[in-house]
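Entry type: protein chain
Record version: 2
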Amino acid sequence: MKTTCLEILPDKTVAVAPADLVRRWREGAQALVMLEGGTADERREWLSNVGAGPAFVDLILQTGQPPRLVLRDDAVLFELPGTASTETPEAVPVSFVCFERLVVVLADRPVAGFEQLFQAGGDAGRTRVGTPGFAVAVMLLFLSAALRTMVANVRAQVREVARRMDTSSDSVSLLDITRLKRLHLDADAIVEEALATMDLVKISRRKQLDLVEHADLMNAALSHVNAAERRLDRVDRTIDHLQDRYEAGQQEKMNRRLGVLTVLSAIFMPLTLMAGVWGMNFRLMPELERAWGYPAALGLMIGVAGALFWWFRSRGWLR
């Protein structure tokens, strides 16, 4: 398990916390901890060290159930999805456990946006956080900005497929459109759950988590997520339009094929009629006894077929 511990110093900057962070926190220090990956036992041990009871630890470890908000006398727990990459939607459940003066963040893998805070944490004197509540608001702002970037990249992929279809409709397959639909559904699920959770926690005004004090940051975070949701609505309509164009193109191809078959049937219908007439078993059919009868019949058939072919082609039926 990767553990990143930051201590919020009296001058409101953050620095990498010393090894005795838990003791310093109990003595009044403020801290921010990121637990990334690891096993359930490793997380359980760490959470138990900061005083979380067994039942509360079990509740914390039940990840993958956003949106959720749990209010306790000694802590606040909430969970929302982030994304592992801004290139494609890869949901990562992120749990925030807020004790008094301590915030513990749990994620199964790296979360896009959080590196801006945790990688800068070692640069004391430049990264200003102030309080754990402010740090949570900043992290939600970074996470929401990452979600907005992820949605922008999904839209860029949709636009690329639309450009290809404009250039050549045959260059886009049903698999391409299905992949875009899957990307949209995954991104929409992440953004919708993140928005629901932020709406729940934005009015929190408890001593473990006071986000009302940082309403400007929360409003900025919600603005990012709302913008991402609106953009996803436009992406959804664009994908539907692409599917309609693809289906229309396939229907046009089918109509052209049926048109060709219709033309071929029309060409052979007179030939079938001639063959039926000359195939009648009457005794008096003079052309059957003529030397030129067979070549004349073949020539007439070829002439009729050629004339019909030219007529249909000249009017664009075979294009």
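Comment: The radius of gyration is 35 Å.
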